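User: I'm preparing a small set of examples for a lab meeting where we compare how different chains pack in three dimensions. I only have the primary sequence for this one, and I'd like the structure in token form so I can line it up with the others. Please keep the answer compact; I'll paste it straight into my notes.
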Amino acid sequence: MPHSSTLYIADFRQKWLNGVTAPLRPAVTPEIAALARAFSARSCLSVWQVVFLSTGLLTGIVCTYLWPYTVATCLYWLFFSGFMLSALIRLFASLIPVARAKPPSVNRASNENLPSYSVIVAMYKEARIATQLITALNRLDYPRDRLEVLFALEDDDTETIRAFEQALSGRPELRHMRIIRVPDGTPRTKPRALNHALIHATGDLTVIYDAEDMPDPQQLMTAARTFAEGPSHLACLQAPLRPLHRNNFISRHFAAEYAVQFEVILPAMHRLGLPFPLGGTSNHFKTDILRRIGAWDAFNVTEDADLGLRLTQYGYTSGLIPTPTYESPPENVRTWIPQRTRWIKGYMQTIGVHTRLHTAFRFKVWLGLALSIGLSVLSALCYAPFTSLILTTALINLLQPEAITLLWPDKLLFIVGIISALTALAIGTRRARAVFTLTDMLTLPAYWSLQSIACLHALWQLIVCPFHWDKTEHAPVLAPAETTR
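Assistant: Understood. Below is the structure token output for the 485-residue chain.
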């Protein structure tokens, strides 16, 4: 059950609704609780996990040697079942209507009644982005006396520190923004920097942004109202992420993929009451709860996905808000592969953490883990070889009809997969107002096949350098019209 200290939000809600003008100042514990060993990716696999994996690998080798055809058939049906399940889930999620955002039941509260807010941005080698980020965060519509912005910068990143110092210098309107220098240490990851900044945060609520983010100006106010009107066990809110449109192959597919994830999959999982993996940015938290559960795992390279599941393990829930955050997408394979490698490696870490059985068994967590992260990893690993097999079979069947026949399961999977993908893309891109053309639809297999390359790289990194953080490069971009209104 959630801890009693979270009742301050309920108190805040009551005071807001009653029009009380006295400022609400809950007692927030500044210390971050030690992360339970069972929830850290730093820990090794449990005994039963080692036994399970070793037994499965040994059994697979023996069976392949003794009954190769049977093993090949079993693998075929395993891949088929995984892809069919993924397609059906995506189709089902596309048909679930999005919950309509309820208008606030209270008028805009006076500044004294609003919770204080901490905005944290952890960065490394992002000097070029300083002006754009400060401008974007300065557009946030929230009382400045209730707002602080913390830039968590690595202590040896002198170029970025200098850029932000110069951008903030001599501007009294930015006095709510300050730099937090992260001391040298290991692992050098974003979650470690976030944890260090969280120690210095004073807000009742905390939100995480990335260096390239341009959040909707109303996002903080929307989150504060949603927390105030929500249950006491609501600990986190996720805003949708919308990559800005770029006229190249990677960025267009990346934007469409995000549209499906944040406009179709996550809303459906939320409507079904399932825990979902958080995005790496625009996560709004009740600060006290975040500290109490150990904050971010510094050794998990997808700390966001892990944290969303861990909140549920502790009995809390996450929700969604409609106000988006715009960001720049990767523009080429050179930047896309390292980023996707890190994501898939972190997904693998998260699967290992949340299947240890060192904690109380929660069926919803395992179901959410399997339907989101589990299927994502399986699809990434198997998509390229399975698609190549089907396309090769179809080509041989076309050129030499007497040589081989395309099996009916392949035809069924192809039809269901296409319908599922196009339905999810059509609905997701419409909701996100993203552009996705006929050419993009025809090149989907090429984009999806890149996932398998990233997955193999992630598997290798998981073995040789599990905590290595692949840095994503960001360049300044123009803000979308929606963010300047």
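A couple of notes for your slides: The radius of gyration is 23 Å. The chain has a mean pLDDT of 84.

User: Perfect, thanks.
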